[in-house]
Specification:
- With about 800 residues, this protein is α+β, with helices and mostly antiparallel strands.
- It is built from 24 helices and 28 strands.
- Among the domains are: about 30 residues; about 200 residues, Penicillin binding protein transpeptidase fold (Orthogonal Bundle); about 100 residues, Immunoglobulins (Immunoglobulin-like).
- The longest helix is centred in the first third of the chain and has 24 residues.
Length: about 800
């Protein structure tokens, strides 16, 4: 039995092996002489949100110029071999050990993850086979590579590879790459330039000299040069000279691409997810989120205003983003003033770059404080303050200034944020907590700051970290969307050549801020009266009757100017500065970037429904005085406005006025920052910032000649004009409760009243619905019941009268109606 099984297995193996050998033997080598005429397969096309406006054809106008081997620099050849296949001249098309190693890795992973490809295999892959990751394709690739090595020599194979390799976008082959990058032929490039050319094919989009990863490209170029020296292609001296050579790339050529920063960013994503070959040749149709009409308008505004910013403020570049805060869709992305302006690094996408946001970061800190119980009415002292607890003991003293070098004394959080005052903002950060403020920003979408508060300290609120314009604008969308976070995205749908949907957006929202906190921030940032002292009454943040919230930001060194503004249905962020981080003129963002932002917003708003922000809840009256804006002191009492004496339970609510015993201290005297809603701290001096805040506040109070008070200064007498016995008496004399009246007739209410003080007003109600009032004797009132709603056969008619001291008396009868 065992013998039969063995013989069957041997026979089966021979059949399978023979079939495999037959399959391998029948593989044909294509006509490599036809490479010059080969056409790229269907290319990916990227559209706007309508799916009709073509933004970018990934392979539009494919650029390839075939050159002979003698017209390609030996440096390009050696650099390519050094970084792609250092055993190229030794192997026969494949490297068995590399393939074996890849097999073990792939089997362990259960998928094709590692290739072990030679230059010959890459040539086969780029020209004759698909890019699909299948074991059968890899086997065919290896077999064809071996066969190709038998009919062509190494020089021919390398020449074909260098003429076929993609170098990014529509550039194919080293001749086209050399012309596009350096304006030279492939034979004329320097060693340093050749190393750059050899660096790109590994990941043409990632290593593009026109992309976001120029530092990574330089690192790879350096690696190429090192490998060339190690393999004996160049000397150490040649390597050192090439490593230090300054290489300048020509500007990219405009080949009809629309919204280039956005389109190429989308392409980067597609290549990372699907692979460059799929994007290049599989005919994907990509419908993006971009609003092309708005994009055109934004580009026109940038083109018009940005040159003036350079001339007037030394701000050479700018970026702008517009997002739908309800969905997260990116509607506009202008990455620079001109993508094709090489002298200004126009191809660099400033909306993705990380820069210091200045005061544009403040709303996240204020939102954190509002979460903890602080209110827009809470008052802090804007006074020159030393914040470093180690100052004088070898520590770095930290005494920041306001933008205008002025100090305003007590100022509430509404005005402090609206006017972007620095000193109160630093105090708000301390009260809110750096950790919690970072957490708020992170949950709202700012991921670049990380989690370590030690990296920033109290400078965080003044923009001490670095964020991108895209994530900052997206995070402001949380304020616009009542505390709901909708992560930004750029693609609505991806379809393959047959129309099959490969991916489709499904926007999601998450609550990351309490609804009322978001509304408080929007209420402040749209409060034109509050920001008028900084911007003036008629300023670039206003749009007539359209309600728009906005915040500017300028870094202390004037390297960055920001503005982010929003309505409930769009948020627009803009930045101005220099890519090389050189400072601009010393002007605030309101002068540099606000005009550009305003004009773009003004063009977009008419296309949107006019939506207003929902009003936040009023501040709770039971909060401690320090949280409700009483900077004069923290011990409060109520008086009667008429008598000036202590209010009692009988004092009408509208006549109760809150007073505080004058005792001027910093807010840390009145509350514990870790529990602001709790009781007053028994030993406030334990807080490390207490003495630093308290000293300037007490000094300021002395300069104002403020007289301190204590409990002995409370009024000694109680309100004696509002007592139960002083309530006026009132009687309804007509109509009569014993009579039934026709609802359609006119009725006159007549009363008789008297009291300790003269009567000044009578108000009338039917079934607790207000009818009207009379403030002249004899205080009668005429009405027709049939004109009212919710009538019944028996109705309550009530009259309330007030005397000149606002003492109140009331009475009611049953009014019978026939209706």
């Amino acid at each position: 039995m065992i013998k039969k099984v063995f013989l069957f297995a041997v026979a089966l193996g021979l059949v399978i092996g023979g079939s495999g050998l037959l399959w391998l033997a029948t593989l044909d080598i294509p006509d490599f002489g036809s490479f010059d005429e080969r056409l790229i397969a269907q290319s990916t096309k990227i559209y706007d949100r309508t799916g009709k406006i073509l933004l970018y054809n990934v392979q539009d106008e494919v650029r390839r110029h075939i050159v002979s081997s003698e017209n390609i620099s030996r440096h390009i050849k050696n650099a390519t071999v050094a970084i792609e296949d250092d055993q190229f001249y030794e192997h026969r098309g494949i490297k068995p050990m590399a393939i074996l190693r890849a097999v073990f890795v792939n089997l362990g992973a259960g998928t094709l993850k590692q290739g072990g490809s030679t230059i010959t295999q890459q040539l086969i892959k780029n020209t004759l086979l698909t890019q699909e990751k299948k074991f059968s394709r890899k086997i065919k690739e290896a077999v064809l590579a071996v066969k190709l090595e038998k009919v062509m020599n190494k020089e021919q194979i390398l020449n074909l590879y260098l003429n076929e390799t993609p170098y990014g976008g529509n550039i194919y082959g080293v001749e086209e790459a050399a012309q596009a990058f350096f304006g030279k032929s492939a034979k004329e490039v320097s060693l340093a330039e050749a190393a750059y050319i050899a660096s790109v094919p590994k990941a043409p989009t990632f290593y593009s000299p026109y992309g976001q990863n120029k530092e990574k490209l330089k690192e790879r170029q350096s690696l190429v040069l090192t490998r060339m020296r190690e393999l004996g292609f160049i000397t150490k001296e040649e390597e050192q000279a090439a490593q230090t050579e300054i290489v300048t790339f020509l500007p990219p050529q405009n080949r009809g691409i629309k919204a280039p920063h956005f389109s190429l960013w989308v392409r980067d994503y597609l290549e990372e997810k699907y692979g460059s070959e799929v994007v290049r040749s599989r005919g994907l149709k990509v419908t993006t989120t971009l609003n092309w009409e708005w994009q055109k308008q934004a580009e026109e505004v940038v083109d018009k205003i940005a040159p003036g910013n350079e001339a007037n403020f030394r701000a050479k570049n700018t970026g702008l983003v517009a997002i739908d805060p309800k969905t997260g869709e990116i509607l506009v992305m202008v990455g620079s003033r001109d993508y094709f302006e090489v002298s200004n690094d126009g191809n660099f996408n400033t909306t993705l770059a990380h820069r210091q946001p200045g005061s544009a970061f403040k709303p996240f800190v204020y939102a954190t404080a509002f979460n903890k119980g602080y209110t827009p009415e809470t008052v802090l002292f804007d006074l020159e303050t030393q914040f470093d607890v180690n100052c004088g003991d070898g520590g770095n003293c930290y005494k920041p200034q306001n933008y205008d070098s002025l100090f305003r004394g007590p100022i509430n959080l509404r005005n402090a944020l609206a006017q972007s005052i620095n000193i109160p903002a630093i105090k708000v950060l301390y009260l809110a907590g750096i950790n919690d403020s970072l957490k708020t920003a992170r949950e709202m979408g700012i991921k670049s700051l990380g989690n370590d508060p030690n990296l920033y300290g109290l400078t965080l609120v003044l923009g001490g970290g670095e964020v991108s314009l895209l994530e900052l604008t997206s995070a402001y969308g949380v304020f616009a969307n009542d505390g709901l976070r909708s992560p930004y995205f750029n693609i609505l749908k991806v379809e393959d050549a047959e129309g099959k949907i490969l991916e489709e957006a499904s926007p999601r929202t998450t609550r990351v801020l309490p609804e009322n906190t978001a509304r408080l921030i929007s209420d402040i940032l749209s409060d034109n009266q509050a920001r008028t002292p900084l911007f003036g009454e008629n300023n670039l943040l206003t749009f007539g009757d359209r309600e728009v919230a906005a915040k500017t930001g300028t870094t202390n060194d004037y390297r960055d100017a920001w503005i982010v503004g929003y309505t409930p249905n769009v948020v627009i962020g803009a930045w101005a500065g220099n890519n090389d981080n050189t400072p601009m003129e010393k002007r605030v963002a309101g002068m540099i970037i606000a005009p550009l932002w305003h004009e773009v917003m003004a063009k977009i708003l008419p296309d949107l429904n006019a939506e207003s922000f929902t009003d936040p809840l009023p501040t709770f009256t039971d909060l401690k005085p320090a949280l409700r804006g009483y900077w004069q002191g923290g011990e409060s009492y109520f008086i009667d406005k008429i008598s000036g004496k202590l209010a009692t339970a009988y004092t009408p609510t509208e006549l109760r006025e809150e007073k505080v015993l004058t005792s001027v201290h910093s807010i840390l005297y009145w509350l514990d920052k870790n529990d602001p809603l709790g009781s007053k701290p028994s030993r406030p001096e334990r807080d490390q910032q207490f003495a630093l805040w308290e000293e300037p506040v007490r000094a300021w109070a002395r300069t104002k000649n403020i007289i301190e008070q204590n409990l002995s200064d409370l009024p000694k007498e109680e309100d004696d004009v509002h007592l139960p016995e002083f309530a006026p008496r009132v009687e309804i004399t007509s109509p009569n409760s014993n009579q039934t009246y026709e609802a359609s007739t006119n009725l006159t209410i007549e009363i008789e009243t008297d009291g300790e003080y003269s009567i000044e007003e009578a108000t009338f109600f039917l079934n607790n619905n207000y009818l009207g009032a009379s403030n002249r004797a004899p205080f009668s009132f005429r009405f027709r019941p049939a004109e009212l709603e919710n009538l019944q056969e028996r109705n309550e008619l009530k009259v309330i009268v007030y005397d000149k001291m606002r003492n109140r008396g009331e009475t009611s009868i049953t009014l019978k109606l026939d209706y």
